[in-house]
Amino acid sequence: MRGLEGEDLKKGLRELIISWETIIREAGSLEAAEDTLLHLEENDENFHKHDFVRALKRKLEECLSPLIDDELEKYSTTGHIDSGSHETLVNQIIDHIIQSKQYGELKRRLGRNVGEAVDSLLTNFDAEFGIGRIGGGTEGLDPRKTPFVTDDEEVSSFNSLYDQGSVMLFNQDYLKGIADNLGKTKNPSTRREAMQKLNQIISGDIHNKHWPLLRKNLMDVMSDADEQLSDMSLKFVAKSFTCTSHHTSQVYILLMEFLCNQFTSSNSAIPLVKNGLDCTNKAMIKLLKAFRLMVEFQQEAPNYWVRYPLVYLEEVVESSLNLLALQVAPQFPNTKLCPLHFVAVLDPKAQWFIKWMHGNYSRSELLEHLKKYRVIVETALRYCLDFSASRKSPYDGMSEISEALSKVSLADSGKRLFYSGPELEYSLFIHSLSFLGRLLCFEKGRSFFPIRLKEKQVPVNIKQLLKALVLLIVDPGVSTTTSRRTEKNSYESTYLVSEVFKSLCSTEAMCSASVCKDDIMNTLLSPVAQLLDGATDHPVPNEMTLLYVADILCIVASSTRGRRHLIHGEGKGLLSRTKSSAAHLIAEFTKKALSEKLSPPCPSAVTGAYLYVCRQLYNTCEGLLVLSQYELHTCIAQTWRKLQDSEKGGSSTVSSVKADDSDKYKDSYSICQCQRSLLCIQPCYIRALLSELWSSLECGPQDTPVFTPKTWPVDPIDRLSQKHFIRLVNILSAFPAVYELIRGEALPGRETYGLRDVPETVTALIDRIIIVDSPAKIHSLFNYEQSCTFGLRVLSAMVSCLDTYLLLQSRVLSAMVSCLDTYLLLQSQYKFQEFLLQEQDANKMEGSDLFIKDALSLERNYVLVKTFMIGGPSERTLPSRTLEEDKSGNIKSPTLFSSYPIPREYQPNIAGRSAMKQENDLSKFLGSGRPEKKPSVWVEKCRDLFYKMVTSKPDQAKGNLLQQVLEQTVVHQCHMQEEAIFHLFDFSGTDSTIKNFKLSPLQLLGIKTAVRYGIHLKVINTSSESTENLTQLVKLTGCFLRQQQRSLKSSLRFVEGSYPGFDWFTATIFLIFNGHAERAWNFLHKFSSLGASGYLWMARLHASLLPISLLSSGIPPLFSSTAHNIELVLQIELPLVASAFTMSGYTPSQICFHWLSQCFWNYLDWLDIVHYVTVCVCLGVDYQVYLCVAILKHLQESILSHMQTQDLIIFLKEEAIRNFHVLDHIRFMKDLETKYRKIVLADMMNISKP
């Protein structure tokens, strides 16, 4: 019962009753007084501040809160409660609480204690309340006789304004007496006594009709020469600032007017700047105390002024700026200190301004008022420009000043007692720098520029200001420090300016509007250019200067606009490439630093910092396009070799890459995403990945006790396994990685399996959860259905790559590795379709043809249909993976089967070829047979007519017309030097050579699959004849390409021998020409000399024609060039899609490479595939890039959605590209050609670049 019994209770009641005196006097009758007291809580804003009320509230919460919580919990467990019964429920809870034993006991004890306290107060009424009565005088309460008043006279107002003593409530008449006693005519003792009484009144109670008089007299007291009296007045200001009333703004205005008077009065004793600031001078101590109160209020007020009326903010801002605008005209050397000098000493980094500019509520008012007080901005600008201009003065001692200012303290025993003139000027420069740095961060702040200064002939704009500040970084003169940045020199000018620039570069808008200017960037990079040029007319830039520049460049490069400015320059873009941009200078400097070709040698930390900037630049396609010529990857590789060869860590530059920045720069060159999958197939990585996967799917390798059992999974792949599923699919979805992992690897096929056996290879995983063909495998799984469903989902993602499907489907044959004359035979081939069909057959009900439909049988059915039936989104129907309800509530289930062919319902009927010919300008041009003197002229005419036809009459773009376009275009392009970049080899083989050419089981199965697809499309008729013709064509192209292949030695088995996958482009051309092998061969033979063949025909450049270094890497041009340019265009045209891929951990390069390598089979309908080939051959191979960008634009909404659900890779790999038709987007692709052909086509035609 703390506060509700004994003397504490009497004290609380006495205070409460005294506060009623004014209310009782103003009441006209007893009834009115009672009514007012009954509604006191509603009308008195100080009601809850009384000690008795607070103690009562605390006790009620202590006793009744558990009861209330129990009641709420009891009703919350009963279920949903209608909103209409909430009021009844509240009344029930209240009634239950009132009737409780705890409430009754509290009521009895409280009633007894209050009764005793009231009796005691009545018995001693005169003694208790006599001092509270107002008699004939206005002396009021004597605070020295009041037991509950404390007065911390020992606490100096020089301390924080929140460390002041307690206060007391008084009535208005009493306040008038105090105001009168503060007048100038009163003697000092009376004024001190009145000031002492005033210091015990809450400031919220003094703002009444007597405030004008009190304010006038307080101003006199604050300006009084009596030290004790003026200190008490500042104590009053400090205590007023602790009050939550919005009237504190009036006290703040009073303080501002007092300070203004100190600088505008004719008899003011403001010292000269050159004489410094003596903190032992009584007048200066008084001013510093007042400014200290001002600064603390300025920094604290933003926390709560949003609660008050707008006039509160307006008054505070207006009075503050009015004071700071007091500028004494420079009269060197007799310039006096101004208010900004004092503020700069107490708040050198302008924290008050930074806080006021933080929120829009105060920022808008502040900037609006600054228009009236532009002199403040002009003064800050003048100090920054003057400091920059004088940075090379023979003696300024800036390093000593910055160290001295770092020790500023006004609260402890080590406080400064004197500030010299240069220190005051330097502190004002720091304040001005921070002020302008924050002002420039906002658009309305930048609107103050340009600013006209009296001493300048032309207005100063933002660029001139920033250029002057940059000079403090790159050419700081004698004031700079060469030591490492630490906390003690945080006032060093170079460091502070670099922090301002980093804040300006922190957002796209600020960076673009302020820093991304060629003049500023050239000045910033001048130390780098000086080292590159080996100039001797300037001092060598020190390490810290170069690091400050690198810090700023890092922030600039982290934003899109800043990075593009570094790469291209001001106002320039991708199409206006120039070697004068900052990126070229940075790359050249970094290359020479890595190669140790700079004189003097570059410090290790600097090399690492600039290498990181380069990494930020070439981590994007635009940057890589510009910086690839510097071959930084070669320099980095050489540096690492030196590091490995050196027993003692090598040179300083080499050490920098490892010791200082190894975490940042170990992936310095952007590793090709194609190689990422190959790098991730190392045994240790696969083993760790499978271990984590198995732990989430089945169990860990150790028998660790589980105290909390796992939740039973309800999804095919639960959230615990999703992450590992995505990571595994990311690797196994690429055919080269699958080939490396399972080539020559047979299934383990063990007789027994332990429950804790964890698969360590991909083949072991296939054996455990995909080809589950024995009771031992079934019994070794804790979660058989979930694990097998997981395995089938992995298989479904893998067979989305048709080559992987063929590799898995072929049976095991004895094979051998051949050189150039033989084709690589696959040894690790699994007949999973037969296994799945057997499992489906075993899932039939006994004595019936009905299938048991569960998650596994539905998943098997989906995989069987998907792997058998090739086709685009409208050419095949894939069964559902789940049981679904129709509108009537009936269960819809897919048709299951246990033998091929698949049911007809999964094979939609496709219309055959139309024999009707349609004449148009293009067909007439192709049929005219008129030769052109220049093949390029014919090709351009053909392109124009083709584009005109596909945009105006796209329905005519099919059949024989497209065959003629392909044949005649290739014939003419073979005579164009810019198109025919490869030598047209004659086929030197014989019929015997072709007949003896061995096709791998993978290729034979691919031929059967392609023929089945062609028959389904009705582009070929008979199976046997078409199979023979396609087999002959594949052998012929294989022999032809083998003539040009080289023997490679590589750690990658994929690049050894002939192309290990199936030649999907050859099959596509075969079907385009309706199974005519001779026409297809004639086209392919001529097409092989064109640069486009290296991108459309995957087998064309396998192990041939390109440099050995490029061939050995396993990176085909389709990836290194096409995929690179896709990402380049994507980042500019579709930044949201590019960001979605980045966040998903999957890249556009991977999925586009997958689509293109199998000619969009299974993703687009056949006619769109034909249009894809024709467009790329006729209009240019760069349309391969534009088509992929158009597809990603079409899929943008789905990509963003699946990025959120973290299954983007599954969506893109397994789902067909629905509702997309190539010719519908031809205009968009034409626009991309106009923008990017100059870059993209030139890059693609430079196909042999390393």
UniProtKB/TrEMBL annotation:
Tell me, which GO biological process terms does this entry list? non-motile cilium assembly
Which cell locations does it reside in? Cell projection, Cilium; Cytoplasm
**Cellular component per GO?**
cilium; cytoplasm
Give all residue intervals belonging to the BROMI C-terminal Rab TBC-like domain: 819-1247
Query: What are the alphabetically sorted keywords of the record?
Result: Cell projection, Cilium, Cytoplasm, Developmental protein
Task: Give start and end of each BROMI middle region domain.
Answer: 175-649, 684-780
Pfam families reported for this sequence: BROMI, BROMI_C, BROMI_N
InterPro entries the record matches: BROMI_C, BROMI_M, BROMI_N, PHAF1/BROMI, Rab-GAP_TBC_sf
User: Which residue intervals define the domain BROMI N-terminal in the entry?
Assistant: 10-127
Principal cellular location given in the protein's record? other
Q: Sum up the protein's function in the record's words.
A: Required for high-level Shh responses in the developing neural tube. Together with CDK20, controls the structure of the primary cilium by coordinating assembly of the ciliary membrane and axoneme, allowing GLI2 to be properly activated in response to Shh signaling.
Question: Which named protein is this?
Answer: Protein broad-minded
Organism, as annotated: Plakobranchus ocellatus
